[in-house]
Amino acid sequence: MTATQTLIELEDVTFGYTASSVLTDISLDVESGEYVGIIGPNGSGKSTLMQLMLGLHTPDSGTVRLFGQSPRAFVERERVGYVAQDVTENTKEMPITVFEVVLMGRFPHAGFGRLTEADRDHAREALRTVGIEHLADRRITKLSGGQRQRAYIARALAGEADLLVLDEPTVGVDAESVEAFFDLLDGLNDDGMTVLLVEHDIGAVLEHADRVVCLNRQLYFDGPPERFVETDALDKAYGTNIRRGEEVTLA
């Protein structure tokens, strides 16, 4: 995409699993090319917000639009690369190779359900982009948490996704791989990929994202990291005196 496009729109969204609201009156937009980091304490509604954006839940009130459509009616799912929080756990028993996982991203583009050599080339290029082409023939079950995350990002790239959505991507990833993982996201965003990230590591979000969304059931801040650290949004959302800009690992 060359022109800026609104990929996600939320207007006055409220949602609850029971009588108590999990999210209240949330309004925000995500534009193409942005790198948005969503932070908040445990139980603040971060993952629920992401699931509302993707149509996995329906708001009790308010409006959600994904690429200008109701998420439930949105059919071009290949435009969204979603890496769920528990993906590294859910793939532990999958008896398929890394290349086969990535090739799944090409299925929406396959004519008459048949994959071509061009589709395989897309998969190979995606593996090269995320730096795991040497693992193509390895079973997905044999990868580390960080390597599996890269495989699923590669699947999104192979599918030519416009939006990469990641829910707590560093959970289960060894510490040595975390910095390289964020460098990968930086590079993808520099190349035009829109990145929407739910992350427990506040320091990583402040360092890498160009926009911070801070919430705890309601929205406390939405703007650039440099402005976020000058506000009291962190204290209000977390209810603690966390030092602004300090790397913490609150879930």
Essential attributes:
251 residues, alpha/beta, Rossmann fold, 6-stranded mixed beta sheet, 3-stranded antiparallel beta sheet, 9 helices, 9 strands, 22% strand, globular, disordered C terminus, nucleotide-binding, transport, ABC_transporter-like_ATP-bd, EC 7.6.2.8, Metal_Ion_Import_ABC
Textual characterization of the structure:
GO terms for molecular function: ABC-type vitamin B12 transporter activity; ATP binding; ATP hydrolysis activity. The chain is of the alpha/beta class and 251 residues long. The chain has a single domain (6-238), classed as Rossmann fold. It has helices spanning 46-53, 87-90, 98-103, 117-130, 145-158, 175-190, 202-208, 225-228, 233-238; strands spanning 6-15, 23-31, 35-39, 61-66, 80-83, 163-167, 194-198, 211-216, 218-223. The strands form 2 sheets. The chain has a 6-stranded mixed β-sheet with strand order 5-6-7-3-8-9, with helices on both faces. Helix 6 links the parallel strand 6 (163-167) and strand 7. Helix 4 packs across helix 5. Mean pLDDT is 88; it is low at 243-251.
| CATH superfamily heading | P-loop containing nucleotide triphosphate hydrolases
Query: Biggest sheet, open or closed, and with what strands and sense?
Result: 6 strands, mixed
Based on Cα principal axes, name the global outline: globular
Alpha-beta content class: alpha/beta
Q: How many helices in DSSP terms?
A: 9
List the helices and strands and how they pair.
Elements: E1 6-15, E2 23-31, E3 35-39, H1 46-53, E4 61-66, E5 80-83, H2 87-90, H3 98-103, H4 117-130, H5 145-158, E6 163-167, H6 175-190, E7 194-198, H7 202-208, E8 211-216, E9 218-223, H8 225-228, H9 233-238
Parallel strand pairs: 3-7, 3-8, 5-6, 6-7
Antiparallel strand pairs: 1-2, 1-4, 8-9
